[in-house]
Amino acid sequence: MRTISATEASRRFSDLLDSIERGESVTITRGNRPIAEIRPAHRRTGRDLRAALADMPAPDDRFETDLADALSYVTSERTDPWADA
To answer: pTM surpassing 0.70?
Structure first.
């Protein structure tokens, strides 16, 4: 892992991001003390979503109706979603 000062990171931020995009992790220091570690973001995939949903129960019979009702509040001209409650 490469270490650079906060000043250098600021001056060469675009280059820093290029390095991180290529897979490098970087420690940022201020006054010779480590302040932050920057590493590539974990890219999420459809496989990650399927794994996360694998243990969730299937939607019940009201799910489609509930979803349609919720969307109607977002897409309609209604101003008070609680007025019908």
So the answer is: no
